[in-house]
Amino acid sequence: MPSRHFLAATVLGAMAVSAGAFPVLAKAPSKAENAKAHAEATQGEPAFKALYKELIEINTTLSVGSCTKAAEAMKAHLVAAGYPESDLHIILSPERKQDGNIIAVLPGADPSLKALLLLAHIDVVEADRADWVRDPFKLTEDGGYYYGRGTADDKAMAAIFTDSMVRFKKSGYRPKRTIKLALTCGEESADTTPGASYIVDNYRSLIDAAFALNEGAGGQLDPATGKYIFNGVQAGEKVYQDYTLEVTNPGGHSSRPMPNNAIYHLAAGLLKVQQLDFPVEFNDATRGFFARMGKLQGGAMGADMIAASKGDKAAIERLKKDPGANSVLHTNCVATQLAAGHAPNALPQRATANVNCRIFPGHSQDEILKTIQDAINDPEVKVTLRDPAEKVSPPPPLTPEILGPIETLTEAMWPGVPVIPAMAAGATDGRFLTAAGIPTYGVSGIFADPATTNMHGLNERVKVTSLLEGREFLYRLAKMYAGGK
Question: Are 227 and 243 in the same domain?
Answer without folding.
Answer: no
